Amino acid sequence: xxxxxxxxxxxxxxxxxxxxxxxxxxxxxxxxxxxxxxxxxxxxxxxxxxxxxxxxxxxxxxxxxxxxxxxxxxxxxxxxxxxxxxxxxxxxxxxxxxxxxxxxxxxxxxxxxxxxxxxxxxxxxxxxxxxxxxxxxxxxxxxxxxxxxxxxxxxxxxxxxxxxxxxxxxxxxxxxxxxxxxxxxxxxxxxxxxxxxxxxxxxxxxxxxxxxxxxxxxxxxxxxxxxxxxxxxxx
Length: 235
Fold this sequence. Notes:
Elements: H1 2-15, E1 19-23, E2 36-39, E3 69-74, E4 85-88, E5 91-95, H2 96-102, E6 110-119, E7 125-135, E8 148-151, E9 157-161, E10 173-175, E11 185-187, H3 189-197, E12 203-207, H4 211-218, H5 223-226
Parallel strand pairs: 3-6
Antiparallel strand pairs: 1-11, 1-12, 2-3, 4-5, 5-7, 6-7, 8-9, 10-11
């Protein structure tokens, strides 16, 4: 009975239709490079000069000393900030509207901070309806044993096929900490359908079995030139 239960849960996990949330760089709303940094304090300089944060953002969000409000320090080339979602390194910038939508679903353990976009030149507020989301990864969702992974020459794991532990079934939205897709948001089909219904612009909702090809295009990652000689890790 125990093995039957485990098998059924594993099979159910495999049947789940997961999508990956990605920046759509073909959208006019989505900057290829965000000319801004996240910090705990404002920086003001008429010449647009700024220093990097003294904190290890976004990991500093896990520190109890991290304030509830952070600042997106914007350079002169920042643009309109018209997006609802932007993947920012291992964290995510969300509009109030976008967060209100996904907050209706079950998110894995995370930290959320208010994010205020300000101009580095004069400190004026550009956008005060943003949020900064970081998943804590307290739970390991990726099941490497049943995934098909290949290590590249830099030590990164190429995700040819991903399988998740049964804990992922407890959530509609989660993230993973390893492979080239570390930090990306994985969502259930019902979340994807809701985002489509809400007509959210500037994002791509990519099926799990298609995400590697999209990653390679978006980040100009060539598997053949980056692959480390050896065998692919099969389940």
